[in-house]
Amino acid sequence: MKQWNEITYYAGFDWAKGHHQIVIVDRQGQIAAEWEFEHSLEGWKQWRERTANYPGLAVAIETNQGAAVDQLLQSGSTVYPVNPRSAKAYRERKVSSSNKTDRLDAWSLADALRTDGHGWRALAPLDPLLQELRLLCRDELHLIAQRTALVNQLQQALSEYYPAALEAFDDWTLAGSWKFLQRFPTPGALAKVGRRKWENFLHCHKLYRPQTHTHRLACFEKATQFCGSPGVTRAKSLLALSLVEILMVLEKQLEEYRNQIEKLFAQHPDHDLFGSLPGAGPKLAPRLLSEIGEDRQLFPDAQSLQCYAGTAPVSYQSGQVHKVYLRRQCNKHLRCAIHLWSDLSRRWCPWAQVYYQQLRQRGKSHAIALRSLGHRWLKIIWKMWQTGTSYDPDLHARNQLQHGSWVLQFLHQKASE
C-alpha cells in the first residue's frame, strides 16, 4: 500500500457484476487512460498489464468489499473505498443535470480521489483468519434469515391444516418440533396412535416439560376437532414435510458454521478479550471481534467506534434549528451484534440492567434503551481493545465509584431497599 505522497495517478473504478469501467487521471486532472474490462481471468490480466504503466496508482471504488475489491487488493493496488452517498455527491459536482453513466461515475471518483483523497483512509487488507471469520459470521446470519423465512412458511402451512401442532409447540426453530411433524404429519396420524405414543415421543426426543406436558396432551387430543379439510390436509402436509426436510439440512449446515467459527475464534489473539464480555457467549463474541477487527489505528477514540457501530446519533444544526437523528450510515452487522449483546448483558451485569430500566422509566423505547446501553458498552470495549485487557467487573465498579456514576448510585440504592 502506497503513501499519499507516492501517488501520481488516480483511478476511478465503477464496478459491476460482469464488467468494470476505469478512468485514470494524472495530478493535473487530465484523463490519462480509460477502458472497460470484463470480470474474468482475461479481464483482470488486462487490468494488471495496463496499470503496470502507472506505478504510482491509487484506486477509488464505491464499496469496501466484494469480488472486485478482493481482486484489486490481490493485484497490489492502493484502494480507497467511497461511500455511495459521497460518490453521488461527487458525480453531481461534475454534472448538475443528474446525468449518470458508468464513465461519468468512474471519472468523478478518479477526480475526487485526486482532489480530496489526502484526507481519506486507504483500505488495508485483512488478516486471512479475521477475514474468514468475518465472512463466516455474516454468512451464518444469512442462513439464519433463510431459516426464519422457512419457519414462517411452515407455521403458515400448519395454521391452515394443523392448528393443534402450532399450539402445542412454541419454538419452531427447534429440531424437536420438526421431528414431531415427521412422526405425526397430519391430525389423523396423531389421533390414530393414541396418548401412550404421544408421551413416548415427547420423552424420547427430550421434549417433556412438566409445565407444558398437560397443555400439549390437551392439544393433541383435540387435533381432529379443528383442522383442515381432507384436500387441504393432504396438500399442506406435503408442503410442511418438504419444509421440514429443508430445515433439517439447513440446521446441519448451521452447526457446521458454528463449529468453524468457534475454531477460528479460539485461534485469534483477541479471543480472551472478546470472550470476557458478559453475555456475549460463543455466538456474539466472534461477531463482535470480526466486525471491530484488530487494527487499533482504525478507531483513534471511542467516539469513532461508536459512530462506526451506529450507536452515536447524527446531529443537524442550522441557525436555531437543532435535531438529532438515528445514524443509518454505519456497519449494520456490528450494530446488530451490539444490539443483541446489550440485551443479553443485562442478565449478567447489574449496572447494565439498572441503566436500561432507568431509560425505560424515562419513556425511552426498548430499542433506544438498548442502543444507549450499547453506546456505553462500546466505550468500555474500545478501552479494553486498545489496552489488550479483558473485562474486569471489579475494575469497572471502581471506575464508576471514582467518577461518581449515577448508575452506581441507583444500584446501591436498590440493594439497600
Short description:
The protein has 417 residues and is of the alpha/beta class.
Description:
- By secondary structure, the protein is of the alpha/beta class.
- The protein has helices at residues 41-51, 67-74, 84-94, 102-116, 128-161, 163-168, 175-183, 187-193, 195-204, 210-221, 230-267, 271-275, 281-292, 302-309, 332-348, 350-361, 366-387, 393-402, 406-416, and strands at residues 9-14, 19-25, 31-38, 57-61, 78-81, 314-318, 321-325.
- Strands 3-2-1-4-5 form a 5-stranded mixed sheet. A two-stranded antiparallel sheet has the order 6-7.
- α7 packs antiparallel against α11 (230-267), α11 (230-267) crosses α13 and α15 (332-348) packs across α16 (350-361).
- The longest helix is centred in the middle third of the chain and has 38 residues, at 230-267.
- The radius of gyration is 28 Å and the shape is globular.
- The protein starts with 8 loop residues before the first strand and ends with a helix.
- The model has no long low-confidence stretch (mean pLDDT 92).
